Amino acid sequence: MRVFISYASQDRAQVEPVRYALEEQGHDVFFDRDDLPAGEGYTTRIRAAIERCDLFVFFIGPNAIDPGSYTLNELDVARRVWPKPSGRVLPVVLHPVPLTQLPAWLTSVTLLESAGNTTAAVSEAVHTLAQLRARERRRRIALFAAALLVPAIALAWWFMQRPAITTRDGAPLVRIEGGTFTFGDDEQSPQRQIHLSPFFIDRFEITTARYAKFLEATGSVAPPDEWDMLDLSQQGELPVVGVSWRDADAYCRWAGRRLPTEAEWERAARFTDARLYPWGNDEPTPERAAHRRDAEYAYQGGVAAVGSHPAGASREGVQDLAGNVSEWVGDRYSESVPIDDVRDPQGPAEGNGRVVRGTGWHQPVETATRRYRADEQTRADDLGFRCAVGVR
User: Fold this and answer.
1) Is 239 helix (H, G, I), strand (E, B) or coil?
2) Using CA atoms, how far apart are residues 181 and 344, in angstroms rounded to an integer?
3) What is the pTM of this model?
């Protein structure tokens, strides 16, 4: 800490030990005013030293407050630098004087008056002030760092949440962080810990409006079942149904994505706490999922517009993973499960058909571990899909 000692020259012998004590504590002490050359440079250097110091120590005595003394000039400079002297000015009573003779600015802080060793008292007081100053500096640095860190964290979170890709079909994606989660339930498949790399998955099932653009762009894929019953101007936000696995796979590839793996689909639905349903462990309700609907056709009272059941969203905001339509995933179906394939599993190399996850609009909602099998060419009025993509 930079310390300026202001004292009357007549008191030098009593003040000098204080200088040495403070220097031994590691402080940078301005003391030798008498060694400066007289003239303009003298006054300028004194003023600069006071303005630069962290603590102004003023030794009080009759000579120090005598009219015309240079110490009063130094005191006036300090007053202009620090209108509020607390923590910046340490008045030390070297020789008692009436308080009425001291400037009011100086008496606005506590005077240090020692009945014992003045050098020891001043050293202790300066040490305490230095600690308080260091503590305040650390606090301000911490606040400044926090002020920088909070926006940085928010910015990092935003970058993590936003898709790092541009989707050809404009479908909104949800980022699923990588890590380990509980897959299976020992009924549908062996329960085990699966590690997945981070990925994005469509927030909603692919809609009829998006699928119509795919049909128009490709011109080589047959329309889905019940397509002729659809009014796109009114029903563009309904999930597309009646698509085969190959149709769904072709769409995802056209859109620059792929079908999610079975493990990715279950991770999106179950989070990392092995919940029964995307929303948690509470029983399904009509507010959470479109299910047990009594309708003859999917597009006429069967399926609901995607995202119309926000109460049933997953922990990370993926919607309609339960109810509305069952969904194709990328894995082949096999009765035997390779339980040692626990890192980004892609499913068996061979199998009988493909895996379907989730339940449709006319069925009761099953738990998120429920899995079905269907031939690749199967088309059903409660079977749709969504896409996924790895983090690049």
Assistant:
1) strand
2) 11
3) 0.61
